[in-house]
Design brief:
mainly alpha
C-alpha cells in the first residue's frame, strides 16, 4: 500500500511538472508571436526556438504544437528576407504535417505560407502549386482565401495563362458578390466597395459608396486614404481632373498636418500637381506649379535627386501650358542637368533635350534650338527610338521654318525607312488595341 501511494505521488508530481512545462512552452510561443507582431524578429525567433525545443521534448516533433512553433520560426526568417531558409523550414512543417494521424487544424495556412516563401524565393511554379492546394483547405470567403485568389490571379496573369486566370476571376467575382451581401457600416468596408464598383465600371454605385464613406466618422489616416482614392477615381476614371486635384490637395495637406513634411507628403502634393496639370486651365496650371514647388522643397531635403528632376520637368510642362516658355526652358534645363550628371542612359535624357529645344524654338532662340534638336535626334537614332526621332525631326523642320530657312536643310532623309516602320508599328498597335477593346 505504501509503495502504491509513493507511485501515485510520483505520478502526480510528474503530471504537475509536465503541466507547468507545457504552460511555459505555450507562454514562450505566445511571447514569440507578440514579438513578431511588434517587428522584433530576433526576440521572436529566440522565444519561438525555446518553445519549439520544449514542445519537442514534451510532445515530439510529430505534434500540432511543435509544428505550429516551427511554422512561426520559419516566418521569422521570411521577415528578414532569408527566403531560402524559410523555404527549408516550411518544407519541414509540411513534412511533419503529413505524419500526423489527423490533418493539422492550420494546414491551409501552412501550405499558403509555403507558397508565399516559394514565390518570394523566385519559384513561381511551386508557389502556384501550393496556393492551388491550399485554396480548398482554407475557409471560403476568408481573408486568406482572398489572398490566395489575388496571388493566383497575379501569377496566371503574368504567365498569360488565360485558362487559369479565367477560373480564378470567376472565383473572385463569386467572392466579391459574397462580400457585398455583408453589412458595411465602417469606412474601410465602404471604401473597399467604392473601389470595387469603380474597377467593375459601375460608376453610379462607386459614387454612392464614395459619398457614403465621406459622411462617416473616421480618423485622419483613414480620411487621407479616402480622399486620395476619391481623387484618383475622379481624375482618372471620371476624367474630372479638377475635382480630383482638389481632393488630392486636401489629402496632402492632411498628411502634412498629421505627419509633417515627409516623403509621403511630398508624393501626395506632387500627385495633386499632376491632377491640376491634367485639368489644363491657366488657373490649374498655376496651382500645379505651387504643388510642384512644395514637393520639390521636401524632395530636396530628402536628397531625392530623381524626384527633384521630375518636379522640374512637370513644372516646365505647366509653364509651357501657360505659354511662359522662358520659365519652362529654365525648368527643363534644371531637369536636364540631373540626367546629364546621373542618368544619361535614361530614355528621358534625349526627351529632356528635345523639350529644351522646343522652348528655345518658341523663344526664337533658333540656333540653340537647332543644336539641341540635332543632339536629341542623334541620341534617338543611336537608341533605335525612331518614333521619337520622327517627332524631333518635325520639331527641327518647324524651327527652320520659323527662322526663315528652308525646311529641306533640317534633314538628309536617311532614316525615312526606319521612321515609316516605326509609324506602321504604332498604327498596328492602335489597331490591335482597338480590336482588343
Amino acid at each position: 500500500m505504501k509503495n502504491r501511494l509513493i507511485l501515485l505521488l510520483f505520478s502526480f508530481v510528474a503530471l504537475l511538472s509536465y503541466a507547468q512545462t507545457k504552460q511555459q512552452a505555450d507562454s514562450l510561443h505566445q511571447q514569440g508571436r507578440a514579438y513578431l507582431n511588434e517587428g522584433k524578429i530576433a526576440e521572436s525567433r529566440e522565444c519561438t526556438r525555446q518553445a519549439m525545443e520544449m514542445r519537442k521534448t514534451l510532445l515530439g516533433e510529430v505534434s500540432e504544437d511543435y509544428i505550429t512553433s516551427l511554422n512561426n520560426y520559419a516566418l521569422t526568417f521570411c521577415m528578414e528576407e532569408n527566403y531560402a531558409k524559410a523555404v527549408e523550414l516550411q518544407e519541414q512543417v509540411l513534412s511533419l504535417c503529413g505524419r500526423l494521424k489527423q490533418p493539422h487544424k492550420n494546414i491551409g495556412m501552412f501550405i499558403t505560407n509555403m507558397g508565399r516563401y516559394y514565390y518570394l524565393n523566385g519559384n513561381k511554379v511551386n508557389a502556384a502549386k501550393m496556393w492551388e492546394q491550399a485554396l480548398p483547405m482554407v475557409e471560403k470567403f476568408s481573408e486568406i482565401y482572398e489572398f490566395l485568389l489575388n496571388s493566383l490571379g497575379s501569377i496566371y496573369s503574368d504567365a498569360d495563362d488565360q485558362q487559369g486566370l479565367s477560373r480564378i476571376l470567376a472565383l473572385m467575382e463569386e467572392h466579391n458578390e459574397h462580400e457585398l451581401t455583408k453589412p458595411c457600416d465602417e469606412p474601410k468596408c465602404m471604401l473597399d466597395r467604392a473601389l470595387y464598383y469603380s474597377s467593375a465600371g459601375n460608376q453610379a454605385k462607386a459614387n454612392e459608396c464614395f459619398h457614403n464613406v465621406m459622411d462617416m466618422p473616421m480618423d485622419d489616416e483613414m480620411r487621407i486614404k479616402v480622399f486620395e482614392s476619391y481623387a484618383h477615381y475622379k481624375a482618372m476614371t471620371e476624367r474630372d481632373r479638377l475635382t480630383g486635384a482638389e481632393y488630392q490637395f486636401q489629402a496632402a495637406m492632411l498628411r502634412k498636418n498629421t505627419k509633417g513634411e515627409d516623403a509621403e507628403y511630398a508624393k501626395s502634393i506632387f500627385n495633386a500637381g499632376l491632377f491640376y496639370s491634367f485639368a489644363m486651365t491657366d488657373d490649374s496650371f498655376r496651382k500645379a506649379i505651387t504643388c510642384y514647388d512644395q514637393a520639390h522643397d521636401v524632395f530636396e531635403k530628402l536628397n531625392n535627386a530623381p524626384m527633384i528632376a521630375k518636379c522640374q520637368q512637370m513644372k516646365g510642362n505647366a509653364f509651357s501650358g501657360l505659354k511662359e516658355y522662358e520659365k519652362a526652358k529654365e525648368c527643363y534645363a534644371r531637369a536636364l542637368v540631373y540626367y546629364e550628371t546621373n542618368d544619361k542612359e535614361s530614355r528621358d535624357y534625349p526627351k529632356m533635350i528635345e523639350r529644351v529645344a522646343a522652348m528655345e524654338k518658341f523663344n526664337k532662340e533658333y540656333d540653340a534650338s537647332i543644336t539641341h534638336y540635332r543632339q536629341a535626334m542623334q541620341l534617338y537614332e543611336q537608341r533605335g527610338m525612331m518614333e521619337e526621332y520622327a517627332n524631333a525631326e518635325n520639331g527641327l523642320k518647324m524651327c527652320y521654318a520659323y527662322a526663315g530657312r528652308s525646311m529641306s536643310e533640317a534633314t538628309d532623309n536617311r532614316n525615312q525607312d526606319a521612321i515609316k516602320a516605326a509609324e506602321r508599328e504604332k498604327l498596328d498597335k492602335l489597331i490591335n488595341d482597338e480590336k482588343a477593346i
